[in-house]
Amino acid sequence: CGGIDNAFPHHTNEIAQSEATYGHSWCHYWMHVHHLNTNSGKMSKSKGEFLTVSLLEEKGYNPLVYRFFCMQSHYRKNLVFTWENLDNAKAAYGKLVARIAALNVNENDAIDEEKFAIGKKKFTDALDNDLNTSLAVTALYDALKLDTNDKTKLALVEDFERVLSLGLVAEAKKVKEAEAAKKAEENAGVDPELLAYIEEKIAERKAAKKNKDFALADAIRDELLAKGISILDTREGTKFTIEQK
Questions:
Q1: How many whole angstroms separate alpha carbon 90 and alpha carbon 236?
Q2: What are phi and psi for residue 39, nearest 5 degrees?
Q3: CA Rg, the chain, in Å?
Q4: Who's near 5: CB < 8 A, 6+ residues apart?
Q5: What is the pTM assigned to this prediction?
Q6: If we measure between CA atoms, which residue out of 49, 53, 91 comes closest to residue 72?
Q7: Which residues contact 1 (CB under 8 A, 6 or more apart)?
Q8: Could you give the CA distance from residue 36 to residue 45 in angstroms, rounded to a whole number?
Q9: What secondary structure letter does DSSP report for 44?
Q10: Do 151 and 106 touch, CB atoms closer than 8 A?
Q11: Which of 75, 135, 181, 226 is the 20 to 30 A CA-CA neighbour of 16?
Q12: CB 122 within 8 A of CB 136
């Protein structure tokens, strides 16, 4: 492995010296990563233009966002770095974490082995295609779109993370914990029985919408409204407010 600038003459010399010494072929595969560029050309120390993890952290970026940014390209292609491009990767990473955090895993569900195999094959096919991490990231998004239960989707994400190491599951856990704390604060003082009833109805309505039974979903909404409970669907899930009497 090495940068593309090592292909010649450095690695050709390594091959010549090593094979002459040992009398047999040495390495069968050589991987040469192309350069990280700025808009003005190759990033290099001599120009005073180079990134460090410390610099990213000083500017408030999670280094895993930079890793995600790099993975959306192929190692055989030059990658153009700008702070705008990194910000786009940061936004995409945040949305991906939010989607994983929104998975409603029922531990009583069984993993759908057929759908799991379909999702994993797309991922391994991407990696078998000359370590195409860009396609691997696409396979991750596709796994979250599979027509299967959330337990299977999470299992796929966890499996892919053994290779990607993007911290997605850990970050999603932090998001869920923060949402739970916020929800507990918002619902402080609400009768626990009423809260359990509302959450049960919201879950029933979500299932009805998933099954395209919109008449039932509307009926549940109206039932809650009749009790002074308004609900609102958001990207973060269904929120509710209770009419004060």
A1: 18
A2: -65, -20
A3: 25
A4: 35
A5: 0.81
A6: 91
A7: 30, 31, 32, 33
A8: 12
A9: B
A10: yes
A11: 75
A12: no
Q: What burial class does residue 145 get, using C-beta atoms within 10 Å of its C-beta: 0-12 exposed, 13-18 middle, 19+ buried?
A: exposed
Find out whether 103 and 168 touch, Cβ atoms under 8 Å. Answer: no
Residue type, 205: R
Local structure of residue 39 (DSSP, 8 states): T
d(Cα 174, Cα 218) in Å, to the nearest integer? 33
Q: CB of 19 within 8 A of CB of 26?
A: yes
Tokens of 55: 């610099």
CB 100 within 8 A of CB 158: no
The CA distance from 7 to 28, in Å, is: 14
List the chain pLDDT tens, one digit each, 245 residues: 899 999 999 999 999 999 999 999 988 888 999 988 887 776 666 666 578 899 999 999 999 999 999 999 999 999 999 999 999 999 999 999 999 999 989 889 999 999 999 999 999 999 999 999 999 999 999 999 999 999 999 999 999 999 999 999 999 999 999 988 988 888 887 889 999 999 999 999 989 998 999 999 999 999 999 999 999 998 767 888 888 76
Question: What size, in residues, is the chain?
Answer: 245
